[in-house]
C-alpha cells in the first residue's frame, strides 16, 4: 500500500526551512569543500571493552553519531537503527509498537543490546524492548556486526548494539521542545556540572503522541503513546581512578492492535549502573561493574480467562575484569561475569516464575602495532541449566599498504533459550542452546579527497536455531541448521563541511534443511546520506531502500520492499539558541511491515516536526 506524496503546509514549510539557508551557505564555501577533513579519530568501546580507534578494529563496526541523535529528540531507537544497512527493523506500526532487530539476518534474540555495558535483553523474550527505551541522553550508538560472545556471553550471535551515554564536559543547563504531526510533542530539561574531574548530570523528558493507524483494515484506529522519565548520573574521572553511578527510569502507556480493536498496556524500565576503575601502576587497570535492569509490562485488559497478563523481568550482573599492558604493543584482558535473570509473568493462563544463574570467565589478548592489529579470546560459560560452553574468537587486521588494510575474523558464539521459549504457552522445555560459527573477511581502502571505501564477506552458521513453527499453533522448536551469508559495501566522502556516505548489505538467511528463506529478512538493503554540517547551519538527507521479504512463518504472502526519504536541518541563532526541523518519511509512504491478528500491519507514515533548544 502506498499513499502519494501530498505535503501539508507544515511539511512544506519545514522542507523550505531546512534546505534554503544551508544551500546558500554551501555555495559560499564550495571552494573549500574538496580539502581533506582533519577530524579526531573515532573511538569505540564495544569491540574490545576499552577505547580503540575504529580503523584498528579487526571487525566491522558502524556508528550512529552524536549529531544524528541530537538532531531529533523525538526519534525512537527503532527509527535511528533503520539507517543501518546491516539491520532490518520490523516495527508493527509507529511509536511504542513492537519492533524486532534482524542484524545480518539473525533475529532479535541474537542481537545483544547494551547501555554503557548494561544488558537490556529481557529475561522472558530474550530480546530488548527497543520501542520503550529512551534516547534522550545517548551520545552515540555503536553497532558491532558479527559474534561477540567471548566478551559478552549469551545473545551476541548476530552482534552487539550499544548505546553510549553522555558524560558532562562543562557546566550548563538546557531545555528543548519539539512539536510534530499527529499531535506529537516532546520536551526535555537537563543540567550538567563538570569541575576538576567531578561531574553530575540530571535529565527529565516527556513524549506524547496521538499515534498512527496500525493495520491495513477498514476503520482502523490510531494507537496513542506516551512516556516520561528521568535520569541522573554522578561520577569522578581521574588518571589513576574513576567511579560513576547512573540511574534512569522510563515509564508510560501504549495502545496496540488486538484483532482489530485497540488495547493498551503500561510499561516501565529502570537501569542502575555502578562502575569503578583503578590503575595499579602504569601497566594494570582493574575495572568493576554492578548493574540491574528491570523491564515491566502490564496489560490493562483481561485475557479470555479473565486475567490481566503481565511480564516482570529483572537482570542483575556483577562484572570484574583487569587489563594488563604487557608492552606498548600488547595487552591481556581477563575477567569474570556473574549473571542472574529472573522473570515473573502470566500470559494466557500460563505462569512463569523462574530464574537462571550463569558465571562466565574470559581472557583476551590484543597486539597493536603500526601495521598489524590482532584480537584473540576465549570464554567459558557455566549455565546452571545448560552446563558449560567454551567459545573462542580470533581476528587480525593487516595494513598491506599505507592506505589499504584487510581483516579476517573467526568466532564461535552461543545463546541459551530464554524463559519465554522454555515455559510460555508456546514453550518447549526440551530446547537445546543455539551454537554458531562465523567467518568474515574484509578490505578497507582510503582514497584521495577524503574518500574511503570497503567490502565485507561473511558466513554465519547456527546449529539448533530456535524458531516458532506452525501457522496457527505456534511452538518453539530447534531447527537443525540455519545459515546467514552475505556481503556489505560502503563508500564515504568527507569534506570540510559537506559529507556523503552510502552502504549496502546483502544477506541470505535460510533454513538449511528446507533451503527456504527465514521470515522477515529482506535480502537487500541500502542507505545513502548526504549533508552539510558546520557551526551555524546543518542539513542532512537520508534515503533507505529494502527489497521484499519472505513471511511464511505467518502467512504465504511476500512483504513488499519499500523506499524512504528522511530530512533534517538546524540553525544555530547564537551560542544559546538552536532551531531544528525534521521530516521522517517525507513521501508519507505507508507499507506493510508484518502480519498478525488477522491482517497486515503498516508503518507509521510521515512525521514532520520542528523544535527549539535553549541552553545556558
Provide structural commentary:
This protein has a 22-stranded antiparallel beta barrel. It is globular and about 65 Å long. It has 5 helices and 34 strands. With 616 residues, the protein is mostly beta strands. The model is unreliable at 1-7 and 19-40 (pLDDT under 50). It has a single domain (9-615), classed as TonB-dependent receptor, beta-barrel domain (Maltoporin, Chain A).
Summarize the structure.
This protein has helices at about 10-30, 65-70, 75-80, 150, 420-425; strands spanning about 45, 50-55, 60-65, 85-90, 100-105, 110-115, 120, 140-145, 160-165, 170-180, 185-195, 200-215, 220-235, 240-260, 260-280, 285-300, 310-325, 330-345, 350-370, 370-385, 385-400, 405-415, 435-445, 450-470, 475-495, 500-510, 515, 525-535, 535-545, 560-570, 575-585, 590-595, 600, 605-615. It contains 5 helices and 34 strands. A hairpin with a 2-residue loop joins strand 14 and strand 15.
Describe the structure using short key phrases:
single chain, Maltoporin, Chain A, 5-stranded mixed beta sheet, 5 helices, 60% strand, disordered N terminus, Beta-barrel_TonB, transport
Topology record:
Elements: H1 9-28, E1 43-44, E2 52-53, E3 60-64, H2 66-71, H3 77-81, E4 87-91, E5 99-103, E6 111-115, E7 118-119, E8 138-145, H4 149-152, E9 159-165, E10 172-180, E11 184-195, E12 198-213, E13 222-237, E14 241-258, E15 261-280, E16 284-302, E17 308-325, E18 330-347, E19 350-368, E20 372-383, E21 387-401, E22 404-415, H5 419-423, E23 434-446, E24 451-469, E25 475-494, E26 498-511, E27 516-517, E28 524-533, E29 537-546, E30 562-572, E31 577-584, E32 592-596, E33 599-602, E34 607-615
Parallel strand pairs: 6-9
Antiparallel strand pairs: 1-2, 3-8, 4-5, 6-7, 8-9, 10-11, 10-34, 11-12, 12-13, 13-14, 14-15, 15-16, 16-17, 17-18, 18-19, 19-20, 20-21, 21-22, 22-23, 23-24, 24-25, 25-26, 26-27, 26-28, 28-29, 29-30, 30-31, 31-34, 32-33
GO cellular component, one term: cell outer membrane
Pfam families: Plug, TonB_dep_Rec_b-barrel
InterPro entries: Beta-barrel_TonB, Beta-barrel_TonB_sf, Plug_dom, Plug_dom_sf, TonB-dep_rcpt-like, TonB_box_CS
Amino acid at each position: 500500500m502506498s499513499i502519494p506524496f501530498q505535503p501539508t503546509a507544515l511539511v512544506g514549510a519545514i522542507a523550505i526551512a531546512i534546505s534554503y539557508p544551508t544551500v546558500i551557505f554551501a555555495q559560499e564555501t564550495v571552494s573549500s569543500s574538496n580539502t581533506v577533513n582533519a577530524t579526531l579519530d573515532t573511538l569505540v568501546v564495544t569491540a574490545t571493552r576499552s577505547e580503540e580507534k575504529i580503523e584498528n578494529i579487526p571487525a566491522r563496526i558502524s556508528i550512529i553519531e552524536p549529531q544524528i541523535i541530537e538532531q531529533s529528540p523525538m526519534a525512537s531507537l527503532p527509527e535511528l537503527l533503520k539507517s543501518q544497512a546491516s539491520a532490518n527493523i520490523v516495527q508493527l506500526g509507529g511509536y511504542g509498537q513492537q519492533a524486532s532487530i534482524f542484524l545480518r539476518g539473525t533475529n532479535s534474540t541474537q542481537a545483544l543490546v547494551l547501555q554503557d555495558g548494561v544488558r537490556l535483553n529481557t529475561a522472558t523474550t530474550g530480546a530488548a524492548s527497543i520501542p520503550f527505551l529512551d534516547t534522550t541522553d545517548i551520545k552515540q550508538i555503536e553497532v558491532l556486526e558479527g559474534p561477540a560472545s567471548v566478551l559478552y556471553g549469551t545473545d551476541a550471535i548476530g552482534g552487539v548494539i550499544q548505546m553510549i551515554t553522555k558524560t558532562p564536559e562543562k557546566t550548563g543547563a538546557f531545555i528543548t521542545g519539539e512539536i510534530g504531526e499527529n499531535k506529537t510533542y516532546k520536551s526535555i530539561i537537563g543540567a550538567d556540572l563538570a569541575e576538576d574531574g567531578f561531574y553530575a548530570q540530571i535529565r527529565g523528558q516527556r513524549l506524547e503522541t496521538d499515534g498512527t493507524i496500525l493495520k491495513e483494515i477498514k476503520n482502523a484506529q490510531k494507537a496513542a503513546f506516551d512516556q516520561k522519565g528521568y535520569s541522573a548520573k554522578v561520577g569522578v574521572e581521574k588518571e589513576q581512578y574513576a567511579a560513576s553511578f547512573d540511574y534512569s527510569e522510563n515509564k508510560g502507556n501504549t495502545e496496540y492492535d488486538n484483532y482489530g480493536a485497540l488495547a493498551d498496556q503500561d510499561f516501565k524500565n529502570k537501569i542502575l549502573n555502578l562502575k569503578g576503575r583503578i590503575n595499579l601502576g602504569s601497566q594494570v587497570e582493574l575495572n568493576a561493574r554492578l548493574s540491574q535492569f528491570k523491564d515491566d509490562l502490564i496489560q490493562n485488559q483481561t485475557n479470555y480467562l479473565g486475567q490481566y497478563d503481565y511480564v516482570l523481568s529483572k537482570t542483575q550482573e556483577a562484572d570484574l575484569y583487569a587489563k594488563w599492558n604487557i608492552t606498548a604493543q600488547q595487552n591481556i584482558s581477563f575477567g569474570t561475569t556473574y549473571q542472574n535473570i529472573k522473570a515473573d509473568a502470566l500470559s494466557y493462563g500460563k505462569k512463569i516464575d523462574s530464574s537462571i544463574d550463569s558465571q562466565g570467565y574470559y581472557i583476551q589478548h590484543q597486539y597493536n602495532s603500526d601495521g598489524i592489529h590482532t584480537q584473540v579470546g576465549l570464554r567459558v560459560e557455566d549455565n546452571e541449566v545448560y552446563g558449560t560452553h567454551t567459545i573462542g574468537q580470533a581476528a587480525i587486521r593487516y595494513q598491506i599498504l599505507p592506505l589499504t588494510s584487510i581483516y579476517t575474523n573467526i568466532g564461535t558464539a552461543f545463546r541459551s533459550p530464554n524463559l519465554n521459549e522454555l515455559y510460555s504457552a508456546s514453550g518447549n522445555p526440551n530446547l537445546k542452546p543455539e551454537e554458531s560459527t562465523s567467518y568474515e573477511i574484509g578490505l578497507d581502502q582510503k582514497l584521495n579527497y577524503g574518500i574511503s571505501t570497503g567490502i565485507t564477506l561473511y558466513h554465519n552458521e547456527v546449529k539448533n536455531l530456535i524458531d516458532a513453527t506452525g501457522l496457527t499453533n505456534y511452538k518453539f522448536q530447534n531447527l537443525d541448521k540455519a545459515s546467514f551469508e552475505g556481503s556489505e559495501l560502503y563508500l564515504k566522502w568527507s569534506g570540510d563541511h559537506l559529507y556523503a556516505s552510502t552502504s549496502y548489505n546483502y544477506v541470505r538467511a535460510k533454513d538449511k534443511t528446507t533451503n527456504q528463506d527465514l521470515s522477515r529478512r529482506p535480502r537487500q538493503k541500502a542507505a545513502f546520506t548526504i549533508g552539510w554540517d558546520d557551526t551555524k547551519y546543518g542539513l542532512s538527507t537520508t534515503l533507505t531502500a529494502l527489497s521484499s521479504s519472505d513471511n511464511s512463518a505467518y502467512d504465504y504472502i511476500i512483504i513488499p520492499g519499500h523506499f524512504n526519504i528522511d530530512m533534517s536541518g538546524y540553525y544555530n541563532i547564537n551560542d544559546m539558541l538552536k532551531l531544528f526541523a525534521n521530516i521522517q518519511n517525507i513521501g508519507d509512504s505507508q507499507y506493510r511491515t508484518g502480519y498478525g491478528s488477522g491482517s497486515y500491519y503498516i508503518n507509521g507514515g510521515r512525521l514532520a516536526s520542528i523544535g527549539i533548544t535553549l541552553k545556558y
